[in-house]
Design a protein that fits this description.
Blueprint (H helix, E strand, L loop, with lengths): L1 H10 L3 H4 L2 H13 L3 H14 L3 H12 L6
Helix pairs in contact: 3-4, 4-5
Length: about 70
C-alpha cells in the first residue's frame, strides 16, 4: 500500500536503517511488487554492497534475477 511505502521511505531517513542491507531487500521486494523494477534493482544492488555474508548475497542476487519486468 501507499501507506507502507511512505513508512518505509521514512525509515530510510535514519542512517542506521539506510545502511542495513535488509532495509534495501524489503524496499526492493516492495517496489518489485509494485512493478517498479529499476528502483527495486537499485535497492537489491545496494543490499548486496552492504552485506559481506555470501549466502545473503546469493539470496539477494536471486531476488534481483527474478525481479518481474514492468509492462
Amino acid at each position: 500500500t501507499e501507506e507502507a511505502a511512505l513508512l518505509m521511505k521514512e525509515l530510510g531517513t535514519n542512517i542506521f536503517i539506510y545502511n542495513y542491507h535488509l532495509y534495501h531487500v524489503a524496499m526492493g521486494k516492495m517496489l518489485n511488487s509494485k512493478n517498479e523494477r529499476p528502483k527495486a534493482i537499485q535497492h537489491y544492488e545496494k543490499a548486496i554492497k552492504l552485506t559481506s555474508h555470501l549466502p545473503e548475497k546469493k539470496y539477494i542476487q536471486n531476488l534481483m534475477e527474478n525481479t518481474s519486468y514492468s509492462s
